[in-house]
Amino acid sequence: MASGGPSPREGRKRKKKSDGSLRGKSGNDESQVQADIDTLTSSGHSALKRGDCAEALICFKKAYKAAVEIKETKVHRACAFNLGAAYVEAGKPQKGLEFLRKAQPGERRERVADLQYNLGVAHEALGDQAQAAGHYLQAAQLYRSQGDGSSEGDTCMKLARCHLRMKDCSHAAQVFQRAAESYRVAGRLDSAAVALKEATTHMLQCDSFSSEDIITMLSECLELSVSITDQHILGKLYNELGLSFSQLKLFAEASECYEQALPLVRPKPRRLAVVLQNLGAVHNTLGQYQQALDFHREAAALHGSQGSRRAQGRCFSNLGFAHSQIGELEEAGESYLHALQAFKDTEDHMGQWQACEGLGEIRLQLRDPDKATVYYKQALGVLSKCKDSDGSVQERLVNRLSEALQLRLSLQQRAPAARRANQDRNFYRQPRRVPDMNGGEPYQGRPLRKNQLNDHKAENGFLVGAAASSSGADGEQRPHGETVMLHTQSNSNPGAPHTQQPDYLSMLPEANRQGHTCGHTHT
Question: Taking the model in full, what pTM does it have?
Answer without folding.
Answer: 0.70
